[in-house]
Write a structure and sequence with these properties.
- The complex is a heterotetramer, with one copy of chain A (299 residues), two copies of chain B (350 residues) and one copy of chain C (506 residues).
- Chain A has ten helices and twelve strands.
- Chain A has helices at residues 25-37, 55-68, 80-92, 117-131, 148-162, 179-192, 204-216, 237-242, 256-268, 287-296; strands at residues 13-19, 44-50, 72-75, 97-100, 111-114, 136-142, 167-174, 196-201, 224-229, 248-251, 277-279, 283-285.
- In chain A, the strands form two sheets. Chain A has a six-stranded parallel β-sheet with strand order 2-1-3-4-5-11, with helices on both faces. A six-stranded mixed β-sheet of chain A has the order 7-6-8-9-10-12, sandwiched between helices.
- Chain A is elongated, with a radius of gyration of 20 Å.
- With 350 residues, chain B is mainly α.
- Chain B is built from 15 helices and six strands.
- In chain B, helix 5 runs antiparallel to helix 14 (297-316).
- The model of chain B is unreliable at 1-21 and 345-350 (pLDDT under 50).
- The mean pLDDT of chain C is 86.
- In chain C, 33% of the residues lie in helices and 25% in strands.
- Chain C is globular and about 70 Å long.
- Chain C is built from 18 helices and 20 strands.
- In chain C, a hairpin with a 2-residue loop joins strand 19 and strand 20 (481-487).
- Chain C has helices spanning 43-50, 73-78, 96-100, 115-128, 144-157, 174-189, 204-207, 229-237, 299-307, 331-336, 346-350, 357-361, 366-369, 377-390, 407-419, 437-452, 464-470, 492-505, and strands spanning 3-14, 17-28, 32-37, 58-63, 66-68, 81-84, 162-166, 193-197, 210-215, 218-224, 255-266, 279-284, 288-292, 313-321, 324-325, 339-342, 425-429, 456-460, 473-478, 481-487.
- Classes of the chains: A alpha/beta (299), B mainly alpha (350), C alpha/beta (506).
- Chains B and C meet through helix 1, helix 10 and helix 11 of B and helix 2, helix 6 and helix 18 of C.
- The complex binds adenosine-5'-triphosphate (2 copies) and magnesium ion (2 copies).
- The site of one magnesium ion (MG) has 6 residues of chain C, from helix 1.
């Protein structure tokens, strides 16, 4: 039997997307991708709710989607556990649930589309070793302490460089994903540790901040910056790498296309089963490939 | 003697011969509900319908609203005392976070039971509040600074307590599991219609209203906020009152933190970020004067519910995020203006 | 009679000011001990020390022989000392009943507040104090006089052994005052010791068993209750002067204000607001016109409506300013017409308490002394210094905080503030409330000097002697109406009769 | 008359007793700097050193500090006026965001020049503030509510203006590029020692100090905050003052927003989130009374610098996140306590 209660070539389906928050640029990028791509499906109406980085808010927004009886629920949980009960309520009520970027606990969801924070960060670590063959001081600008992406990316990167004693992590400080805080913090780091050769940042904004800080003391050439998210567009990380400002960034995939494709299968094609997990591969953006990727990425 | 008592009463009976404004007074007593009424009426009017049913009034939807405001509501109850006493407490959100983390760690990592964990959390939260109150009162530092610092301190403590991670609360027996009883905070009672979190809020609301209006303590809070010198002259323990109200906010934050942990089976140092503003907003929209000395508990409750209902009806109508922000701003002001307009008779009481 | 209280060598210093320089004071059971003294003499300070409100620097206090040290008002309460503070300290947000029982609430068996019981008791207390107000009116809606009565009732409710009254009649009119004297006598008869502070010398023989006069932080001398006023005045100000009141105006100039069957309708009806219903009066240059009447007849409302202060509304009937019909009712209009206003509530509306004397004095004339909208410190300092000496504010410290000035000196600051703006018409409400005789004489003299220069004054006062002594004409009000007018030289009896009968007539 | 003038001479002799206090007065006048001094001394003491050099005092580091506080500093200047006038403005952070977004969109998407863009942004920001002030004053709604609503509205407008994306400001000529001159806001002057952003802050600080202390307007602001009714009675245009101060915060937010856009070559609707608290903190730590009527501009500036220096010294020492929060809280309170302790001559001015 099909996954959705009502499916088929009906002319109107409502997709309710509960987004963790609109603050992080990555999030608004996801919104954008969805808004852009959903135009390819005239039957779909996309409604995005801003979870405002609050479990409480996001839970009640999901409940509202339930009240409204949306045809399918997209959700990027702000945190997994808090959203789990309400999501499974939705799922049990027969509304298909597609989770983006972060899984809820348990398995009450139709399928999961996303990347793997830890793996991506680990890959960044690997690349860091390549960047500094004969080692050196490394700094890390962490996200919002204790938020899961921050934790996963921090651990991942450390794991990535663990097997190379020549890379010394001399400073780790939180910048709460924020560019302005990144500038202040990294400026201070450069004072305290003038030999920093490379900085890994948990998101593109932090990387941009690190670049500004380095530039202010004329070190932007000597310090290798690795970002995360790899957002397209002139304000994104890919552009920054292409410009040669950063050493690299890792694309954290939005999975927007994949998610919409699943929605189509479920709602329009009345699919009876869809893949449970769709892992969208990350991509390492380096000066070599940056320009082409930047050109390719529609925005 | 007798005719003397008679003579002044001429003068004063003149003072009282003026139109008795009792009915208006009555409206005014409930002015703080007008905003809520406005929003509810609007909510019903604009609510989307599905085969005849008004979604806004669906039991599920109402349950959702009252649940979503239970935590800020609890915080607002305590905040009402503080603000009436002419203080302010910015730390409530952070203390909520701290409490939920403590609850989670003690239950999961330390493997304590509920009857040891919950009391301890409440005690800690209350003490935290009292300490802030004491510093602010004894060292004569403005409450704004002390509680802003308290906010930071609480978040710091939470990070330490949790070891910079968030903690999932999973139920079951044996180590690393919380007693399933705790899960009730996330559930609904009475045939799945009434969220337990809201029940907690209601119970506290009743208690808080009682204390504010029917105990000597409540009186003193008004007096201290309204005219500290007068209060002191009347032999009221001003210092103690000014300190204790922060104990109340602390306690409320503790309860809210436990409710948070229970609702979301989760404790994170960042829980409750920004809740303080919502709580204060609820209090102030409820007609309590930020300069102290005047306010009602029912107003605060109405204010909290209003904010929840407002957010809900906007989202039910698929209003875009940007528009939601604009509408929220506009309606909050409108509601407040309506209330003060009705309430404005006596210029002297600003 | 047993000696209730002994205070020996009390000293108190505030910053640079030695407020009390070793004061001895005592009180016997059942006596009313009147304490006189100029503004700033230290009366309130002494009483604040006795009531545990502030601590003395040195000296000791003995109650019935037992030495006492109060760490706070609560302890003084417990020791049976109650006080009607000079600056009526009530909680505006709470209703009368709540204020009366503040700190001594009655409670039910459950420990909850006994609302109904307190309400009933409050009504009784109010009656005892000779005032019939509903106990549930918020204090914020009461006028000065009513607040004063509430404060008295509150002090009575404590049934204390020692009752301190710091200028209790300041805001009361003759009738209420009379009633208060009755109460005082009752209390004394019951063996209570009453300390009574006042600047109204005519009250002394009516209450006093004994009089102590303070000057400049010291006891200047004692006097018997029946000492002639001149004697008291000499003790008070250290010199005798023949007449408190300066000679009346010789020349009456052109007409400044004329109201004929004027009526004011406030936009918002306020609880207990006695709007002007039918007012006819005129004020000319060089003339001082008095407003007499029982409490609550609407004198304050009339003045604030003329000035357009905190009442929106419309004037109807004839309102001529300087002969021309004028739309009064807004402050800008009033000030443009050269009208200035001194209210009866100096703390609430007269002064910025947390600011310095200097800042307050220049408040209403900043526009004048700030060329190009910039402050000119030198000019300002000269200006302030001149004003302070002209109105003899003590201490003469521009940077002293007004809140720390004695009541009377605060009043002088208000005067300085409004008069330096050189208005044509000055509206005064209870102008000498809490001002000592010396200062009164100075203020009267100032007024006369200014009227001689063409100022016109409309003054509401509850002190009939003041009105009679000062005014060229006296208009009697009742229930928002002007019911009678007397030329100079009318007797208290005539006026009082006019007010009451007018009240019954209306 | 003559012998009368004899009597007041007593009062004068009292007056002469007073000047002895001058030195204390002097310390007290600068009490608001004590917190800053405390932090700086501590900073030097605890600063890490490299071959003898105290990193905390390195020109680069000082440049970092003063740059990092330039935006909140600018906001705090305006906030000082509002708070002295017994108001509060929670919208400054959001208006900063709105302004930086406007700047970015106009420069990049609309392709305007600097001389058209910047004035327009400033006008919009100022108007936004004035509207808030007008609503709060005319409709008698507490400023807290109005500006909280304003915060939401501003964020909403920013989302709309930006189309909910981050707008990068890249320099160059031709469409989609901003005039390179604008980049100067991100740079440093005088041999790369002095951040331009800080220069903007300093200039505004001088102007603000001048207006507060040396103009009639400044006096009016104090009077209105000190006792609104007395001010009104004295014929001061109370309404206008109460409205205009929000125009000032608006203007400051506009400038800060432009500086933000310039510094980060970047405009985002969420820029400046939470800045309002930092700004208010700077003001209050600077000794301004949240109840209005008292405060100094130099105190505000000191407060802002103190917060920046504090964060910096903690970061220099690689203090962990948790400890940074704890230390910040503790030191802020300590500084405030120290100041009030010295400043407390007159208890009555709470
Ligand atoms: N808290 C204070 N700080 C500084 N000076 C004060 C304070 N309280 C009173 N003073 C000063 O002490 C002196 C005595 O004041 P006090 O109020 O006792 O006079 P008073 O006799 O009550 O005058 P009045 O009749 O006008 O009330 C005055 O010079 C006053 O300025
Ligand atoms: N601001 C106010 N708010 C509410 N009621 C007021 C206000 N001012 C005066 N009243 C009321 O107006 C009535 C007249 O009081 P008011 O003091 O104006 O008369 P009055 O003749 O001046 O008496 P007083 O002897 O006190 O001057 C009083 O009953 C008082 O309750
Ligand atoms: Mg006195
Ligand atoms: Mg009056």
């Amino acid at each position: 039997k099909p996954l959705a209660k009502t499916c088929g070539p009906k002319d109107k389906y409502v997709i309710g997307f509960s987004q963790a928050n609109f603050k992080e640029p990555y999030r608004s990028h996801v919104n954008h991708e969805l808004e852009r791509l959903v135009k390819n499906y005239p039957q779909f109406k996309l409604v995005i709710a801003d979870g405002q980085a609050s479990d409480n808010t996001q839970v009640s927004q999901v409940e509202n989607f339930l009240t409204q009886q949306v045809d399918i629920l997209f959700i990027s949980p702000f945190e997994a556990a808090p959203l789990t009960p309400v999501v499974s309520r939705v799922y049990k009520s027969g509304i298909p649930v597609i989770e983006l970027d972060r899984k809820t606990n348990g398995d009450d969801y139709t399928s999961f589309v996303g990347g793997d924070n830890e793996k991506i960060a680990e890959e960044a670590g690997q690349y860091a070793k390549k960047l500094l063959p004969d080692g050196g001081d490394v700094a890390i600008l962490e996200g919002l302490p204790s938020s899961s992406p921050a934790i996963e990316r921090l651990d991942g990167f450390k794991k990535g460089i663990a097997d190379d004693p020549k890379l010394k992590v001399v400073a780790v400080q939180p910048v709460d994903w924020m560019e302005d805080k990144a500038v202040t913090v990294f400026s201070a780091m450069l004072q305290a540790h003038p030999d920093i050769k490379l900085v890994y940042t948990s998101n593109d904004l932090a990387a941009a901040g690190a670049y500004i800080a380095a530039k202010q003391v004329g070190k932007e050439k000597d310090i290798k910056i690795i970002g995360t998210d790899g957002l397209p567009g002139p304000s994104g990380g890919i552009h920054a790498v292409a410009e040669g400002q950063w050493a690299a960034t890792l694309v954290y995939p939005t999975g927007a296309a994949e998610a919409l494709d699943l929605a189509k299968k479920i709602l329009i094609d009345c699919a009876e089963s869809v893949p449970r997990v769709v892992t969208v591969p990350t991509q390492l953006i380096t000066p070599e490939n940056a320009k082409d990727v930047y050109a390719k990425e529609k925005f | 003697m007798t005719n003397e008592t008679a003579t002044p009463s001429i003068g004063v009976s003149q003072a009282d011969a003026r139109p008795k404004l009792r009915p208006l007074d009555y409206v005014v007593r409930f002015q703080s509900l007008l905003g809520l009424i406005l929003v509810i009426v609007g909510g019903i009017a604009f609510s989307p319908r599905r085969h005849g049913h008004i979604l806004f009034l669906q039991p599920d939807n109402i349950a959702n609203i009252v649940r979503s405001i239970s935590e800020t509501g609890i915080l607002a109850l305590g905040m009402t005392f503080v603000i009436i006493a002419a203080g302010i407490d910015l730390s409530v959100g952070a203390v909520l976070g701290l409490s939920s983390v403590l609850t989670a760690t003690l239950l999961i990592n330390a493997g304590w039971g509920l009857w040891t964990t919950l009391p301890l959390v409440l005690v800690c939260a209350t003490l935290f509040g009292l300490v802030q109150g004491a510093i602010s009162t004894r060292l004569h530092v403005q409450a704004f600074i002390v509680t802003l610092a308290g906010l930071q301190a609480a978040r710091g403590l939470a990070l330490i307590a949790s070891g910079n991670v968030f903690i999932n609360i999973n139920y079951g027996s044996g180590p690393g599991n919380a007693p399933p009883a705790f899960a009730i905070l996330g559930e609904r009672l009475f045939y799945n219609t009434f969220p337990v979190a809201t029940l907690v809020f209601l119970v506290l609301a009743v208690i808080a209203t009682f204390f504010l209006n029917h105990t000597r303590y409540g009186r003193y809070v008004f007096a201290v906020g309204g005219n500290e010198r007068a209060a002191r002259l009347s032999g009221i323990p001003v210092e103690w009152i000014k300190i204790s109200v922060y104990g109340i906010t602390g306690l409320c934050s503790g309860v809210a933190g436990i409710v948070h942990a229970g609702q979301f089976a989760f404790g994170s140092p960042t829980d409750g970020t920004g809740y303080e503003l919502n709580a204060i907003a609820a209090v102030v929209i409820g007609g309590t004067d930020l300069f102290g000395g005047a306010g009602t508990m029912v107003g605060t409750i109405a204010g909290a519910v209003m904010l929840g209902a407002l957010a809900n009806v906007l989202q039910l109508n698929d209003v875009s995020a940007a528009m939601q922000l604009l509408a929220t701003g506009a309606i909050i002001v409108a509601a407040a203006a309506l209330q003060t307009f009705v309430g404005r008779r006596d210029v002297r009481s600003r | 009679m047993t000696l209730l209280l002994e205070m020996r060598g009390i000293e108190k210093r505030f910053g640079g000011i030695q407020a009390l320089k070793g004061v001895d004071f005592d009180l016997r059971a059942g006596e009313a001990h009147v304490l006189l003294g100029e503004n700033g003499a230290g009366k309130s300070t002494l009483m604040n020390i006795l009531s545990g409100n502030i601590g003395p620097d040195s000296g000791d206090i003995r109650l019935l022989g037992a030495s006492m040290r109060f760490s706070g008002p609560a302890e003084a309460h417990a020791a049976g000392i109650a006080m009607i503070p000079q600056e009526l300290d009530l909680v505006p947000g709470l209703d009368i009943a709540a204020n009366l029982f503040l700190g001594s609430e009655q409670r039910t068996g459950w420990g909850t507040l006994a609302h109904r019981r307190m309400h009933a008791a409050a009504s009784d207390l109010l009656k005892k104090a000779g005032v019939s107000l509903d106990a549930d009116r918020p204090v914020s809606s009461l006028r000065m006089g009513e607040r004063q009565l509430v404060a008295i009732a509150k002090a009575l409710s404590a049934d204390a052994r020692i009752l301190i009254m710091d200028e209790p009649t300041a805001a009361l009119s003759a009738t209420e005052a009379e009633h208060l004297f009755g109460t005082v006598r009752e209390l004394c008869a019951r063996g209570v010791g009453v300390i009574y502070i006042s600047h109204r010398l005519e009250e002394v023989p009516r209450v006093a068993d004994r009089v102590t006069v303070m000057r400049d932080g010291r006891v200047a001398g004692e006097a018997s209750a029946d000492a002639p006023q001149a004697e008291l005045v000499r003790l008070l100000v250290g010199r005798s002067f023949e007449d408190l009141f300066p000679p009346r105006a010789k020349t009456i100039g052109r007409e400044l204000l004329r109201l004929e069957h004027a009526r004011f309708d406030p936009a918002i009806e306020r609880a207990g607001w006695q709007a002007a219903r039918d007012v006819s009066l005129t004020v000319h240059e060089g003339e001082i016109v008095g407003l007499a009447g029982l409490m609550g007849v609407g004198r304050t409302e009339l003045l604030s409506a003329l000035y357009g202060f905190e009442v929106e509304g419309r004037w109807s009937g004839t309102v001529l300013v300087g002969g021309r019909p004028t739309r009064l009712g807004t402050i800008t209009a009033a000030r443009h017409a050269g009208i200035a206003y001194v209210t009866d509530d100096r703390r609430g509306t007269g002064l910025v308490l947390k600011h310095s004397v200097g800042e307050n004095v220049v408040l209403s004339t900043l526009r004048r002394i700030t060329p190009w909208a910039l402050v000119a410190p030198k000019k300002e300092r000269r200006y302030v210094a001149e004003a302070l000496s002209r109105f003899d504010v003590r201490p003469k410290l521009p940077e002293a905080l007004v809140v720390n000035l004695s009541g009377g000196n605060q009043q002088k600051v208000v005067f300085a503030k409004e008069l330096v703006s050189e208005p044509h018409l000055l509206l005064l409400d209870e102008p000498t409330r809490g001002v000592d005789v010396g200062a009164k004489a100075e203020i009267y003299e100032q007024l006369r000097d200014l009227t001689a220069k063409g100022l016109g004054v409309l003054v509401a006062s509850s002190e009939l002697p003041e009105l009679i002594g000062l005014c060229d004409r006296i208009v009697v009000m009742s229930r928002g109406r002007t019911v009678a007018e007397f030329a100079a030289g009318a007797s208290e009896e005539q006026i009082r009769h006019a007010s009451t009968s007018g009240a019954e007539a209306a």
